Amino acid sequence: MSIYSEVDFPHKPGAHPDWQESWVLIFRDPLTGAVGFLRTGAYVNQALTQTHWGMALPDGTRFRRHVLDRKLEPGDLTDTTMNSGNMQFSIPNMEYCRFEAQDEDADVDLRIYDWFPSQDWAFVGGPLHGKLLADAGPAGQGDVGATGHPESAGRVEGRIRIGDRVIEIENGIGYRDHGYGPRAHTIFRAARWHAGTVGPNLSYSLISMLDNGGAFHKFGWVMLNGKREVVKDLHTVSCTLADGCSVIGGWTVVQLENGQTLRINAETVDGVVTSTHLNNGGPGSSPAGIEALSIPRWNGQAGVCDFNMIDNAHRGEQEVSHTFLANCQDGLSQRTFDASWIR
Q1: Beta bridge partners of 179
Q2: Which residues belong to any copy of the DUF7064 domain (predicted)?
Q3: What are the strands, taking DSSP E only, across 48-104?
Q4: Which helix (H) or strand (E) holds 20?
Q5: pLDDT confidence tier of residue 65, bands split at 50, 70 and 90
Q6: Residue 104 has pLDDT above 80, yes or no
Q7: Which residues in 235-267 are b (16+ Cβ under 10 Å) and which e?
Q8: Is the pTM of the predicted complex or chain greater than 0.90?
């Protein structure tokens, strides 16, 4: 029996003009150290597709390509698949999730075999504490700009190419994210999303955000030793360089209602700048976020995570630039910044 269900496939869009649906894969190959962030989706009612794509190698070779205003064409979004032109998502034969992507400078064909069914975010604290996002109704869902956020983690295999380097991945590790619902242009002030896995014993998604009006929200879940645990509270500490964008790591401490406290440390390999409608943020787009592709460590185990960070305390709409570790260039490039001596 498949662990996949209707929640993992495209949903019927609501009437909101900014209703969107997207699928994300964060992956790492422990053998070569390759990391990547893949996102394909669409603003369905605007008939626009989106690709966010970044990858990096330990030697500093990196790739980034965002395609944010491609027209949604017939057949791009079906009952079971999503195609944003240069990236595709599918669940072949209900056996695994497949992410494919094509570019002159890079290619991807990866399969993630999930360890458990998709888990939706739950509210942490407040009157909706413990309630799933998909069950919260418009009032609660408006806080995060989504109707649902089912996610999972698993083993990754397949093939990637960065420039002339081809890597066959046999035993990689990955985290999968799926968001759907209204996602309006919102200039919120700050956000932390630490989502990842160290293997079958621990996977998690932990979110804290300060919205445009100044209210604070927390969401998340933890899958510990095959069982979902209720999150009582959490805090994420992000170590950011002087450019205000480049995350080099940090940690999250999460208290569970079963009495346990977990500390998950993260060391960032590379960062990918993302924004909703423009490559690096700016007027008319969301504040630029940093997909900090990182190695989480817990209880002697290591995996992959997105140690995502957005800091926008003054609610500006300026494009980011002059970043150290966070990549805001297009195509192939070579990272020259060395973070090893400052960690």
Answers
A1: 22
A2: 189-312
A3: 48-56, 61-64, 67-71, 82-83, 87-90, 97-102
A4: strand 19-28
A5: very high
A6: yes
A7: ebebbbbeebbbbbbbbbebebeeeeebebebb
A8: yes
